[in-house]
């Protein structure tokens, strides 16, 4: 790329960036994106109080006790550009996590003991009785809990149902001193240490229901509405998709690991293909020029006919599942062998065409200087042929790089397999596939650039 083209690209990118920034600035700050009716601090406080009061389930005596000791005070309101009201708040509560986390087994063991005592006495035990027993135990620990306080930012959004406070689990957890964390831990507990024995309570539904209900939370509004305009919404959706497909759980590593495998397969296959291709080409050229090596030439022609006449994927499946799998040979080796054999057939014809295009006078000149046939080919014919066939060879290598993507059919963890893993987890097709396409495109562009540099250097050597 020359300097003028580079400047043009930079200017174009700058213009597009300026348009996008302007669009975000203009459309992101229009009145329609702000709340239609502003609210006072006291009105915001009412919404916050009502929301927190509804978090605990009616049967959750333990959760209610925590909420009773929790206050969230709104100090200031600001207005965003997504029909949202930003609340600067101060919360005060008790250290729920500190009071209960280390005592979960004690709480549940006490409930289990109560359950067994009732069974032994012939009394009917229901979830409500267990719930009351657990609540009493939890309240004992909560009364001794230390107080906590801090600052937090919450958001109220304007929706079709009116002004609504949206709380993430983290927001609730912070404001209640770890209530969400403790509730989750209790719900996930399936074993209780009781009198030196570990008891499985998974199937004791009455007991589990009574314990879990004691500290359960209502399904409060977690996902804030997307009130952004089209431009911001697109950007938000793009960021969310990018995070979900690549950042979350380090899923981008599937592509990195797959890329490494793809490059390894391609590199080894190219080496095998070039060596095999040159050998086959020289055998065929020798037969055409001298009439020798007829039997080997017949084998080479059969090899070329079979490889060039059947699909690559069928060759891959036959080589791995029919020939190599019974021998317990690794699928990576099978992929390299298949792509190398396939590439070798095309390289052979490319090289043969290049050698045959060299004027016969070059061979005669070499022989007249006292060189034998092999020396003449190595010193005179092949170097001239190589310059002529370089573009075609580069095209073959690029094709091989892209065709290596079918390796995932036999379970090789290549770049395409990495994409498949991400899509199977996120159920998203667009972004993983685009990412793979972009990676292949960049690889092809790099290879094309390197070949261009090599061509220029070879052209200079002619002078």
Which terms would index this structure?
two-stranded antiparallel ribbon, 18 helices, about 65% helix, MetI-like fold
Q: Could you characterize the architecture of this molecule?
A:
There is one protein chain. The protein is of the alpha+beta class and 463 residues long. The chain has two domains: 34-227, no CATH class; 252-461, Orthogonal Bundle (MetI-like fold), CATH 1.10.3720.10. Helix content is 67%, strand content 10%. It contains 18 helices and six strands. The strands form two sheets. A four-stranded antiparallel β-sheet has the order 1-2-3-4. The longest helix is centred in the middle third of the chain and has 39 residues, at 252-290. Residues 26-32 have low confidence and may be disordered.
How are the SSEs ordered, and which strands pair?
Blueprint: H1 3-27, H2 41-53, H3 61-68, E1 71-79, E2 84-94, H4 96-100, H5 104-120, H6 127-143, E3 147-159, E4 162-166, H7 169-175, H8 179-188, E5 191-194, E6 197-200, H9 205-213, H10 230-247, H11 252-290, H12 294-309, H13 312-324, H14 331-357, H15 360-368, H16 373-403, H17 415-426, H18 430-461
Antiparallel strand pairs: 1-2, 2-3, 3-4, 5-6
Helix pairs in contact: 3-6, 5-6, 6-9, 11-12, 11-14, 11-17, 12-14, 13-14, 14-16, 15-16, 16-18, 17-18
């Amino acid at each position: 790329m020359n300097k003028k083209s580079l400047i043009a690209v930079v200017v174009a990118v700058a213009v597009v960036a300026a348009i996008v920034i302007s669009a975000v600035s203009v459309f992101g700050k229009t009145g329609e994106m702000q709340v239609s009716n502003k609210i006072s601090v006291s009105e915001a406080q009412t919404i916050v109080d009502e929301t927190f009061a509804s978090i605990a389930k009616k049967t959750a005596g333990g959760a209610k006790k925590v909420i009773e000791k929790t206050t969230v005070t709104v100090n200031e309101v600001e207005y965003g550009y997504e029909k949202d009201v930003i609340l600067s708040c101060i919360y005060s509560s008790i250290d729920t996590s500190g009071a209960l986390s280390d005592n979960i087994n004690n709480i549940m063991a006490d409930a289990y003991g109560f359950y067994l005592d009732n069974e032994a006495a012939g009394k009917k035990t229901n979830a409500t009785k267990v719930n009351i027993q657990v609540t009493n135990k939890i309240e004992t620990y909560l009364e001794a809990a230390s107080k906590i306080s801090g600052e937090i930012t919450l958001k109220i959004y304007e929706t079709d149902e009116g002004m609504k406070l949206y709380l993430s689990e983290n927001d609730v957890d912070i404001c209640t001193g770890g209530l969400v964390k403790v509730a989750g831990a209790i719900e996930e507990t399936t074993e209780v240490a009781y009198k030196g024995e570990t008891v499985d309570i998974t199937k004791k539904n009455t007991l589990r229901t009574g314990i879990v209900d004691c500290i359960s939370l209502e399904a409060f509004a977690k996902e804030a509405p997307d009130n952004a305009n089209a431009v911001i919404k697109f950007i938000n959706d793009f960021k969310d998709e990018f995070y979900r497909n690549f950042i979350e759980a380090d899923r981008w590593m599937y592509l990195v690991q797959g890329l490494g495998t793809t490059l390894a397969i391609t590199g080894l296959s190219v080496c095998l293909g070039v060596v095999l291709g040159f050998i086959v080409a020289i055998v065929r050229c020798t037969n055409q020029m001298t009439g020798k090596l007829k039997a080997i030439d017949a084998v080479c022609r059969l090899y070329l006919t079979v490889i060039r006449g059947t699909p690559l994927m069928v060759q891959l499946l036959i080589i791995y599942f029919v020939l190599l799998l019974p021998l317990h040979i690794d699928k990576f080796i099978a992929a390299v062998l298949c792509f190398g054999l396939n590439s070798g057939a095309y390289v052979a014809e490319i090289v043969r065409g290049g050698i045959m295009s060299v004027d016969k006078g070059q061979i005669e000149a070499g022989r007249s200087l006292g060189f034998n046939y092999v020396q003449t080919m190595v010193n005179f014919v092949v170097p001239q042929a190589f310059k002529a066939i370089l573009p075609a060879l580069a095209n073959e290598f690029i094709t091989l790089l892209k065709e290596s993507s079918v390796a995932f059919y036999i379970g090789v963890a290549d770049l395409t397999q990495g994409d498949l893993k991400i899509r199977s987890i996120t159920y998203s097709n667009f972004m993983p596939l685009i990412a793979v396409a972009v990676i292949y495109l960049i690889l092809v562009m790099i290879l094309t650039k390197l070949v261009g540099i090599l061509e220029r250097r070879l052209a200079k050597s002619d002078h």
